[in-house]
């Protein structure tokens, strides 16, 4: 009897051990819906910001604004006096000043608070927003321009603590003092 039982158990063991192991399925699955919602939200934010910026540009009939491939607008408010055409390139050490204003023209951070900036173009880890890093490369020494940056080229989701909320477009007056 014991032999029959042992043979029967051995047979069951052999049959069940020959199966391939089954892959475990994950408990939590993601469908990408968070990313899709984030993309949709960011597109809506940009659309609203662009409409507000275009409204400001239309009401400012005294200036001609130039739209850039990077997604911001600017107008030259003071040309250089020497007529030089020397824009900064990668590796140039430049000095400039800038301020930060909201779309209503209220100063958030003044040029005096920022001080004179020394910046090595595209090679510095300086804490500048991408709009300013891109904007200074469009100026000649001695020129001043007003830039309008959507939030993704400005302070984006983080804003400026106790000064500028999240996802706020800004304007900035930048003066390029020199290129070395």
Helix content: 25-40%
The DSSP helix count reads: 4
CATH domain fold name of the domain at 82-143 and 151-180: Chitinase A, domain 3
What's the architecture of the domain at 82-143 and 151-180, going by CATH? Roll
Characterization of this structure:
The protein is of the alpha+beta class and 180 residues long. It has a domain of 92 residues: Roll (Chitinase A, domain 3). It is 29% helix and 22% strand. Strands 1, 2, 3, 4, 5, 6, 7 and 8 form an eight-stranded antiparallel beta sheet that branches. It is elongated, with a radius of gyration of 30 Å. The termini are far apart. The mean pLDDT is 88.
Describe how the helices and strands are arranged.
Blueprint: H1 2-17, H2 33-59, E1 66-67, E2 73-78, E3 93-98, E4 100-102, E5 107-109, H3 111-114, E6 117-120, H4 130-135, E7 144-149, E8 170-179
Antiparallel strand pairs: 1-2, 2-7, 3-6, 3-8, 4-5, 4-8, 7-8
Sum this structure up briefly:
The protein is of the alpha+beta class. It has a domain at 82-143 and 151-180: Roll (Chitinase A, domain 3). It has four helices and eight strands, in the order H-H-E-E-E-E-E-H-E-H-E-E.
């Amino acid at each position: 009897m014991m032999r029959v039982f042992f043979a029967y158990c051995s047979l069951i063991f052999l049959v069940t051990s020959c199966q391939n192991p089954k892959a475990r399925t994950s408990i939590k699955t993601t469908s990408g819906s968070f990313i899709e919602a984030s993309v949709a939200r960011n597109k809506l934010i940009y659309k609203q910001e662009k409409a507000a910026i275009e409204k400001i540009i239309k009401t400012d009939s005294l200036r001609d604004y130039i739209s850039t491939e990077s997604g911001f607008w600017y107008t030259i408010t003071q040309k250089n006096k020497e007529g030089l055409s020397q824009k900064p390139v990668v590796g140039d050490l430049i000095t400039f000043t800038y301020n930060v204003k909201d779309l209503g023209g209220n100063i958030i951070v003044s040029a005096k608070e920022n001080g004179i900036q020394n910046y090595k173009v595209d090679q510095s880890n300086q804490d500048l927003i991408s709009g300013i890093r891109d904007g200074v490369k469009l100026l000649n020494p001695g020129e001043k321009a007003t830039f309008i940056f959507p939030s993704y080229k400005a302070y984006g989701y983080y804003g400026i603590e106790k000064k500028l909320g999240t996802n706020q477009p800004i304007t900035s007056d930048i003066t390029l003092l020199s290129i070395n």
